[in-house]
């Protein structure tokens, strides 16, 4: 049965004393705790794009890369970076997300300048050396970069669209792959996981 | 200095100042009232009359500046450089405002200010404390979004370094179909609109107003966005069907779910709101549903805009996630406080209502709510659980089978309910009386099931769906005929108002149910390997491959096949490759009739230039056309149901004028 409300006198605006039952408060607090718990966990969720994407290279020795740096002309080889974490960053001057991620890379390099245990190596993807080095200068990057003129490095690493970034361990093992612009939080988390 | 940046930023700060002043005057009024118990409305109105329009003007200035920047390809603005290119067609240049994070938050803010302004205009002469609280809450929400646009998601940031000669252009997926221009805007008009019922409801609680007439006020502001959201969701499904090239229309993508969850709870709230309005029952329940709906819209924004989930829609690389989480926490905190300490003051009497095993309108509303919430809970768990569990164990992936399996039983019972509930009244009805009322609809349902069984259908779920959907349509049409008789043949009385509009919305939903069911269960998929000039049959449909062409445009490279479908066409499925993007975008060719859609995609291009053979992906599905039509009917139903709230008073006034005139003539 539905009992209809016969009380036609509404109390608008008048404060009336209502006892708030303990169960009500208990229920509300439980809901609050659960929701705040969910929010708390969400707050520490890394963005989906910073979580490493699967790659057949993960856990394997990174294919070697060697060539002349477009930054200062010196000869650079990935093998010479053993002993340091290497952030291998495929980029191009025409790629806007590459531009977007550069502050994260620069801050990351700056934060690790004292420990000197991290190096960044850029790989130019489908671009000219002069444009790429101008791009690096304009964003304030000082790390070495190699121009992958033939595209063979991109093929070895399975890179199809910059920016793509790999994290390589001091012993030369590929630890993680990021597709899309990296974030400082993503880099820190990835390196924190293996240090 | 860039004029677009200056004006855009100025607009935001103008609104920010205007809303701060308006908030200050409202707060001052509320504090004064606390001590003197006397609201100085005229005083307050004089002040906020100036500032409320300025909020909208400021935001509009910002939006106009951004549109102007997009149209003039002003690559000095980083947002424009990233989301526009010189060759971007006009429509997608305009839609650039909502093709990435910062711009879409600006659009959200713009629509929010429109709603808040309309609400202010409608109630500017009201002297209820509920309205004062509601305006205050509206403005606090406006301030929050102004803050997002001013700081973490500012679209008016100057390009760093050299100004590019050309921009990157929008995401290729977003420049393929005009629905991109409509669907997000409709969705935003839906999601953002739930702000108003939220603030009115909280306003009611803070002002301790138990008067159910506030439910009527809320209804208008609830159904308007609900209608937009319904159509927006369906238009989104249409876009994904037309663009994504897999022949489906719903993927249980977290972002689709983000829009679906508030739709489910809003639908529940609209139904229980009817019971509150007509019988003063389920009052607290309706209030909580409205609060939950708004919380879910902000959660949806978080899921979509924070990059926490991987999806077609998600704009990753953003830092607004944490602000949205703080906002959700604040909303939950305030809502729970209001429900715990304030709701009992306006809803004591609710406890007296008990609905026991009976067949009545109230029981139907309760069942409706339980079912809608059950589906909403399934969707919520499926969307949020994988993100949570990632912290404690392996990444898990929840896909369509979970949602389909879990929500199907509830949806099926809802379908039976929608076929029966409209004939019920608040007084419990005896089963034989119910039988009389449902005689013709039940006969129609029986006829449909017999026909289905005779034509070879054996799955009970299919048969139940089609027959109860038919029954529901017959029930709705009978209700419309009743309206027609009751209003003595007036079209307005038949189709407008809650009694008319709701039945039209029901018909839309049922058409949707039938067409989705048939598309999903009766669809055929396959591949054909065709040489140039060759003709082959699939599902009794003849496909003829006429030619293949590749065109290099400045903005993209398009490979196009010309295909005849049963000698209609040619239809041209294509693969488009954009420069700066290596991802190729497939565009389907669709031969659509009200009875069936033939959907073809180029799934493989010739490997060498000499070879002229393609692989054609084919999807044949019946009644797809009616899914989109159903969406428009639901939208129309929602809007129609709102109209009499405007006209009824006018009609009453007219008759009053008439009687006054006759009285006068009598005297004379």
General description of the model:
- The complex is a heterodimer of chains A (195) and B (668).
- Chain A is α/β, with parallel strands linked by helices and 195 residues long.
- Chain A has a single domain (48-194), classed as 3-Layer(aba) Sandwich (Glutaredoxin).
- Chain A contains five helices and seven strands; from the N terminus they run H-E-E-E-H-E-H-E-H-E-E-H.
- Chain A has helices at residues 22-43, 96-111, 129-139, 152-157, 184-194, and strands at residues 66-68, 75-77, 85-91, 118-124, 145-147, 164-168, 174-179.
- In chain A, the strands form two sheets. Chain A has a five-stranded mixed beta sheet, with helices on one face.
- In chain B, strands 2, 3, 4, 5, 6 and 7 form a six-stranded antiparallel beta sheet that branches. Chain B has a four-stranded antiparallel beta sheet with strand order 1-10-9-8, with helices on one face.
- In chain B, helix 9 (213-243) packs antiparallel against helix 20 (624-642).
Largest interface: A-B, 48 and 62 residues
Calculate Rg of chain A over CA atoms: 27 Å
Give the termini distance of chain A in whole angstroms.
Answer: 67 Å
User: For the terminal residues of chain B, how far apart are their CA atoms?
Assistant: 74 Å
Give the tally of structural domains of chain B: 4
Strand content of chain B: 5-15%
Q: Helical element count of chain B?
A: 21
> How helix-rich are the residues of chain A, as a percent range?
25-40%
Shape field of chain B: globular
Rounded to an integer in angstroms, the radius of gyration calculated over CA atoms of chain B is 27 Å
Poorly predicted parts of chain A:
1-15
Instruction: Using the coordinates above, name the CATH class of chain A.
Output: Alpha Beta
Number of strands of chain B: 10
Share of β-strand residues of chain A: 15-25%
